Each structure stands twice: as structure tokens, then as C-alpha cells.
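--- STAGE predict ---
source: upstream dedup step, 1 unique chain passed
mode: sequence only
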Amino acid sequence: MSSRFLPVAPGEIATVVTHLEMRARPGPRPVRPVPLRLKRWKAPGIDKYRALYRRVGEPWLWFSRLAMADEALEAILADPAVEIFAVLDPRGIEIGLLELDFREAADCEIAFFGLIPQLTGQGFGTWLMGQALGLAWRGGVERVWVHTCTLDDPRALGFYIAQGFVPTGREIELLPDPRITGLIPRDCAPHVPLIG
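--- STAGE serialize ---
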């Protein structure tokens, strides 16, 4: 079988998205203590939410919530079936984001999961995933799922698999490059060439 190359237009980026799921609550695992804590944000304002979203996701070209109309984002943030948490450091500074979406019956999507890049690779992600799974697995939930893509930290896919998620599908997504559209500064995500 021969391979195919699909052109990506100037001004666009392409990424391979992997969907992963967990169909049963994982058993307890030891997690080392960390100097972080979760704080529930009930219906945060969009400016506050987007500021943390940028802090965590800009290096990986997260931009869906930046491009979303204010009214649409406000509706998600105010929905009682969407739970948003900030990760706080010992000084109370917001350094991570966890968003759980229970809007689909029997499902919990880990919609956003991340820490500022300076904290990756130090075991804090394992702690945060433990928190996420503890909150996600509740009565009526039969599946917890998440997705990652090739724009994310290259360790993300392996991390999710190590946490017990099983890959279930892949897609190729073509997007306008948010650095060209002005949503994200042009110097972000140097691991993704800017062609425009």
C-alpha cells in the first residue's frame, strides 16, 4: 500500500487527533503529595477563563476557546454540567486548567487538561489526572474520554495511555493557523512551522 500526502494550504495547520477513553474506574494508585490544589470555578467570567486558557495552552496552539463567540463560551462556562477547575500553586497563582464536561449522558469528557509548560515532566500531571478521574467517575458515568493531538506536548499521548486510557480513533484536522489570524502571538509554538 502506498502512502498519501495531502497538501496543507499556506495559513493552515494540520494535526492528527487521537481520541482515547476509559470504560471503568481505575483502581487506586499512590500519588506523591504535591504543593498544588484545585479550586472550582463556578461560571467564571470569560476574560478570567481565557487568561488561564492562554497561559496553559498558547504554547500548544490551543485556540478554540479564543475563537469562540463570547456568548457561546459564556453558555458553556455557565452550564451546570460543565465543571471548571483552576490548579493553584502555594501562592494561589493559577497555573493549570481542568475542565470536565458531563453534558452527554453517561459520559465525562476531560475537555481541557493542562499545566503551564514550566511544570510539565515533574509528576504534577499524574496528580492532576488523579484529581480529574476522581471527579469524573461518579454515579451514572460509564465512560471518561479525552483527546490529544500532534500539536500538544509530544509526551501527552503516552501519558494518557499510561494513565489507563485506550485509543479509540484518529482524525486529521485542518485549521487556520491562529498565529496568522492574530488569536495567538506569532512566536508561540515554535515546534510548528509558521507558513503563511
